[in-house]
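Internal tracking record. Fields below are filled automatically when a chain is submitted to the structure queue. Please do not edit lines marked as system-generated. If the sequence contains nonstandard residues, flag them in the REMARKS field before resubmitting.
Queue: standard
Priority: normal
Entity type: single polypeptide chain
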Amino acid sequence: MLASINTTATVAADDVEEAAAAVDGAENGNTPNVENEPPEPVPELCRSSRVKGYLLLLVSASLNFEVVLRLHRKQDYFVNTDIKELNWCRVLDNPAGSFLDFVVLRRLSSKDKVRYAMAASCMTIIISGSAFLCSIDLFTILRKTLWPKVLGPNKKVELCILSFLVIIWLVTVWFNTTIRGIAGEGSEQYNLYFTSWLCLWITFWTLERWFVSSGKSSFEKFLNSWPNRCKLWIVTFILSFSDFLFVLDAMKNWDEGTEANPYVNAMFASISHHEWGFFFDVTIITFMMSLAWIVVEIFRRNKKEGSALKSDVENYVEGILLHLIALLWIVLIFFVTMPGHSASLIGNLYFTSWATCFSILATLIWWLRDWRKDIADTINDQQAEYERAKRAVLRREEKRLAKARREKVESEAVDDDESNNLDDIVEEEEEEEGAGEDIVDDDITVSVASVSGNRARTDTLDSTEDQRSVCFSARSLFTSSERD
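SYSTEM-GENERATED OUTPUT FOLLOWS
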């Protein structure tokens, strides 16, 4: 997997560099500048990713031709002769007539199909081999004069060559791999079957590389430009429509296509009309539904132009239809691929049915992922809203508590003022009481002083009697002051 990713990244980088070099050359014209410096070197064609495509196409077409040649020699097409050589002029002259027969839907004999397959592979070998040799040319003078004008980004000659190869192999795959083809179901020509499909894929891949290196829109860019799940709906449409064509051809022509294989003929004869009808109906429903969703997306805004979100009702309808069609395909695959049924043999029906089923399941998984994401986003939004409401309540509570504390502080200040006033009153009362006590003491002092004066004036009394009288007078004065 990592190797394929690295290879793809390297190929894309080579194509981008080649496109940049082509644009540079087109702008500069590869002409010397004012100072008569030599022109910039022409980008080497051997570094192009299309060289890999030509090489792979040469190998696969050679294998295909070898298988067809063996099949041609196995069948006795040369009447009343033992010559084993091949008439190449006759082989190369056959494709035009065969292609015309394909266009007008005229039936071809087995002999004509073998000759057409041989001619297609032979022409592919010649064209791809020539293109490969021209691309790796590093020695001849034509590598700077002729080959860059024929092969390279934005060169119409190479575009025509690749388009021709794609069309040729589309027709060849139909002739070779359908139920009446030389590599159809039950023919056991597996090398011919797989090399035919491989040649078609390589030609299309090489044409895709030409569009990328030329800076034009490619099939990958076309798919990525569609919003939502439409890219998988396009793939599903292509696969289901191909499956529909193969089912229709097998349902109508299985008797003719399996004449040479009695076992395969008996197997197809035992298949009921209900199975063919169910197979046919499911493929029709699938590609029609895929086409409907593609048409819906056509009238939606492009992803580059802005948001292309679906409504909730549209998402629910798409999800219900996807679940139903996925259930139909699971039942269909389980039924038709069992031994003895319509898609049990190695061939187009088997592979396109499985590919369509996988495409439907991939689309369903994508829908489920988006659905779960929408649920998670809704839960997160509700959680965020709850957090915002909680913070708002906390802020209101903090304001209320701050206001209460402020009011409490103000009330405590008022209480302190009142207590201070009370303290002042109490202190004043205490001061007044203290002044009263001082007056009583003064009276006592005056009484004692008067007694002492009387004692001094009394000279005739005895000392003992004088002391007793003085103490009595002082005690009586003190008692009278306490009573007061």
